Amino acid sequence: MKLLRSIKIGLADIYYIWRREYRAVFQDWGVVIFFFALPFVYPIVYAAIYNPEVVREVPMVVVDNARTPLSRELAREMDATPHARVVSYCANMEEAKRMMYEKHCYGILFIPSDFSRKVERGEQSVVSFYSDMSILLNYKGFLIALTDVTMNLGGRLQTQSLGGASQEQINVATQPIPYVSVNLYNPEAGLASFLLPAILILILQQSLILGIGMLAGGIYEHRRLHLFYSGREHMHNNVLHLVVGKSLCYFSLYILCTAYILHFIPWLFRYPQIGSQVEIYSFAVPFLLSSIFFGMTLSVFVRDRESSFLLFVFTSVVFLFISGITWPRYAMPEYWKWLGAIIPSTWGIEGFVRMNTAGAGIYDVRHAYTMLWILTGVYFLTTCLVYRYQIWKDKKRGFSGVLDSESNE
Amino acid sequence: MSEQKEYKTGLWATIVRELRLLVSRPIYVLCMVGAPLFCCLFLLSLMHEGLPHKIPVAVVDHDHTATSRTFTQQLGSLESVDVVYKPNSFTDAREMMQAGEIFGFLIIPEDFEAKALAGRQPEISFYTNDAYYIPASLLYKSFKTMSVLASGAVVRQVLLSAGAEDSQVMAKLQPIATDMHALGNPWISYSIYLNNSFLPGLLQLMILLVTVFSIGSEMKRATSREWLRRADNSIIIAITGKLLPQTIIFFSMGLLYLSILYGYLHFPMHGNIWHMIFAMFLLVIASQSFAVIIMSFAPSLRIGLSAAGLVGVLSLSIAGFSFPVPAMYLPFQAVSYVLPVRHYFLIYVDQALNGIPLYYSRMNYVALILFAVASTPLLPRLKKALIRQIYVP
Question: What ipTM does this complex have?
Fold first, then answer.
């Protein structure tokens, strides 16, 4: 009976904190913006920036010193690829370089004067390409275009030299072992389809950290912490109630955001979305919980509302890189792997990308899923500890019961 | 504040006041020195290899012959590839891919050897996981190279047996060869590519945030009138006195970046280093000025910081470090040119990576200088806000 009674009181207390936290969130414009406006707007902005997905028709120029039908054909075929667009034919390399300096082009195709002569003599003929390296995507496009065009043209030349051969013989002679390449999960190899899923997860985590940090900063600077413990002394384990009550508030608020970000946005922008949504939602549960407790733990460092920005905004970039979406995790130095392993977004991104983009089931991402539950447990404990510590420090300072909402520094 | 100090006014007094503020709160040291330093060490050590080597892949060998095994071995000997699994079926390989154990796999068909020798064109197929962009594009290149080489080996054999000379073989195999010059970054190093743009981008982010924070905190703590009094009620002296110490600290961090990138790590520096030092200095003051503009329009700490955070974080995408600006939608192209770091990036490309004459970067230097002075006409507006001294939570 006694146990039942204390559970009842405990639940009532948690419910009280939960409701109270709603009020705290909705009374604070800054937090409302972090919790709702930021998750709403950022995905759309990012999606719009990367929406073209691929880089097409990058301008290039041709310096054709051979001036033969074959060299002109090579230039025309480059122009015909989706990757490149010939904007000008230059008289010499000097002129082409100037075009490049002026940013009128990002690549130069140089065809030497003996180009056709060598081909006709049966020697190997070499063409040179100079690519600007400021943007790797441009280089990649040029490289693919040039390789494909020269190989096709070369194949045709071989065919001509085999006069009278049947098509089958020609195929065998030019490409005895053909190949097919399949880009799985991101068929057009688009930048948005690759980057956005990671950014979406990061937006969820970072907006939580920023908002929770701002709330904590407000409590710290207005010395309102005592409102959370004074008058509730009969609760022996009130830190637990405090942590559970608050996290329930954030969790419930983020259900909508999660559905919007992880379900609606990929659908809206037609990103690869082949996973089972039910499994993605169940994966999102430990991710949200660990992010919430991670944010609550980190909030101990926030001394006033606005420092939340200074402390946490730049970490978005660090967390994105450490997640291994750009630089694969296996290739990282050991210590960064360890640091990455204690950040919820690392596992969140890994799991979400595999499930949403690559169609894995929750069983396939069990490692990330387990890690998220472990992080949830660890950060729950650290949250309780830092809350305990803050209340202890607050009591020692003797703010209990005194409502001085203005800071007196 | 004691009575005696009240009397000392002017630029020097404002600077001294600001220095006291900067050391009084750990968050300033953390954000002006700690964060930029951490980001620098983090990104550079993360990508110190330049390219991810030994990407784990699987080979599904349906043929099980000497030829197919040789092919697998040759694939594994490539620098970028590590054959870690040899599953028995496509499904097994796909499941490994979904579990993230491999980034790509290659399938050698049944009767590969027999068909290749008989000239019946056995087809190699390879799959890359393009949800991970960098490993996928590196693997695509390696798989393609191996497939072309395999073809080449067969043709070479046929040609040699038909009595062709070795010197003729190459011409027959590949009548047109290509000579690709990756200007400035022949190693195609991602470290060179990303760090030269992301580090200044992160520095700009921290400058924006700290500048807005330091001005906004004066309003929040209701010390902005006292600050103005210290500066003889001149907003020019007040802002100069406040931002000059920060300029020096941030510029020192910038110099540290430059010395690590081009001195210690020997990243490509084909021009004059002074051009980059000047650009870095302009980036610092342009970003500070940008923050002052934000505070003049929205003199509220929270709104100012939101705007600074938005601009700073979106800069990393819109300034076109990874996705080129010309490929973006028109509005974003326009926005990219009102970001200081975009101009710094273009100067870097011209002056450090490509080492072309300074003349071609003139507009970018001018743009950065314009950013730096653009805040001055707005200062009276900021002054009014500082006198009002209202804090909006």
Answer: 0.91
